[in-house]
Amino acid sequence: MLIIDAHLDLSMNALQGNRDLLRSAYTIRTQETGIPGKGQGTVAYPEMRQGRIALSFVTLFARSTGRPAPHFDFASPVQACGVAQGQLAYYRALEETGHVRIITALQDLDNHIADWQAWETDTSDPDNTPPLGFVISMEGADPILQPDQLEVWVNGGLRLIGLTHYGPGRYAGGTGTEIGLTELGPPLLAEMERLGVILDLTHCSDQSFWQALEHYSGLVLASHNNCRALVPHQRQFSDEQLRAIFERDGVIGAAFDAWMLHPGWVTGETPHDKVTLSTVVDHIDYICQLAGNSRHAAIGTDLDGGYGREQSPSDLDTIADLQNLTGLLEARGYSTNDIAAIMHGNWLRFLHDAWD
Q: pLDDT, tens digit, for every residue of 270-302?
């Protein structure tokens, strides 16, 4: 089954992490042996092709929160802007060399999915997949110098924006804060709506979540978010927040980070088998039960968001193992149509509605 993954930090890992993602995850692990915090990666392009990840929402990520940290939180907005522009150039270089397609419009999307569907029915060359499809997202709007610079980013291919990340973002308070929108937030949301840029509510503080909905009337999503009812933490969304996304006909992508799946998870201390792909299905199922249908549940793994196998479901070796979700959903009583919606159909419908 084709899969759409709504959150991967590919450029950050390729550039800031110096990973050649054209090589397999296993080769990269070998190259990173002995490097602290590395050697456990689950995501690379060969495994994405193997796992039929036909389309991904891929990020530009460079914070400037006033709390500098090497490689991801920069001392000034102009540094963050330059880094994110470099990440965008990386995706364009992949496209120029034929490895990916950057999807920016409805016709691009339909043609790309049709190519993958045609490949699935042609068994003569099972390893020769079409290029991977990328929709460019920005995780945290800090690299946008001012709201009126947004059009430059859109012309470069940007189609989705999450206002903030962890901490006090330039446009909105993020995870771990009680800060709402900053003075830059409403003008950026207005410009996003004018230009048709989709709002990703992931990482918004509770205050900025509700304020963003007041200032933005377009379609919204949560690209990589789980359920606060199952894992009590501000990073997850409450039932009220999830229902607000349902009311906008939005979609929530289940995240695979173990601490977002199991209450009280501590990497290196909590037994790894406490979190499996079935735990991910718990969150998907919760969203479906809350909504009364499967229309709003999907996948947004964040499998390369600064961690690897040590903080992923224990029965997942690489991103190719996302295919195992289909059997788990079937065992929970989900129909073939529901499973297809969760694996790719809901994101396809969402992008159609946004771009039509």
A: 999 999 999 999 999 999 999 999 999 999 999
110-169 tens-digit pLDDT: 999 999 999 988 866 777 899 999 999 999 999 999 999 999 999 999 999 999 999 999
The closest alpha carbon to 133, from 108, 160, 167, belongs to: 108
| Residue keyed to tokens 């946008």 | 144
Q: How far is CA 350 from CA 102, 218, 347, in A?
A: 17, 12, 5
CA atoms within 13 A on the CB side of 345: 11
pLDDT(263) > 70: yes
Residue closest to 202 by CA, chosen among 240, 244, 168, 174: 174
Long-range contacts of 43-47 (CB under 8 A, 24+ apart): 43/8, 43/10, 43/13, 43/303, 43/304, 43/318, 43/319, 44/19, 44/318, 44/319, 45/21, 45/99, 45/132, 46/22, 47/318, 47/319, 47/320
51/48 Cα distance (integer angstroms): 5
Compute the half-sphere exposure of residue 170: CA atoms within 13 Å on the CB side of its CA: 24
Give the chain's count of helices (H) and strands (E). Answer: 13, 9
HSE (side-chain half, CA atoms, 13 Å) at 58 = 31
AA letter at 245: I
Q: Report the C-alpha gap between 291 and 239 in whole angstroms.
A: 10
- Closest by Cα among 141, 218, 152 to 185: 141
Which of 22, 15, 8 shows the shortest CA–CA distance to 59? 8
- Six-digit token pair at 229? 């009812």
Q: What percent of the chain has pLDDT over 70?
A: 99
| Coil, helix or strand at residue 205 | coil
The average confidence (pLDDT) of the chain is 97
pTM of the model: 0.97
Strands 198-200 and 220-221: parallel
CA-based end-to-end distance of the chain: 25
